[in-house]
Design a protein that fits this description.
Elements lengths: L1 H16 L12 H17 L4 H11 L4 H23 L7 H22 L4 H23 L1
Helix pairs in contact: 1-3, 1-6, 2-3, 2-4, 3-4
Length: about 140
Amino acid sequence: MPFLVLVATSIFAWGSFRPRKADVPVHLSRRALIASQFAIAVYGGYFGGGIGILMLAALTAAGWEFRSAGATKNLLAGVMNFAAVIVFAFSRDVDWVYAAVLAVGSIIGGQIGAYMLARVNVTALRVFVVVIGVLLTLGLFVRAY
């Protein structure tokens, strides 16, 4: 798991800050983007750690503008979480009080994130995403090992 977030953070950072030639666009194919988002959704429905960075890495690697990628990431995460709730609704192992608190926090965080996405400098936001990715990776490595 820590390696997955490390790779996603690296891809996002590389795609965000490397020098580009204006006439050579960087694009992940549509098929590869759909496959990667599906794999992220399956992983995210089960665990969820680092999916935002994974989705942003895939969307920006496909050539999406950062603000559009961020908004799409929020929408996809909502759909993914809704599908996971449907699957987990039939499990006796879910503590629905904790799930409700998590759902409310996720909705509030998504709204704040959408508000800030439209107002914050894109370069600062990219730096923030990379810093969060590095911190998340370090935290996962410490926890795993």
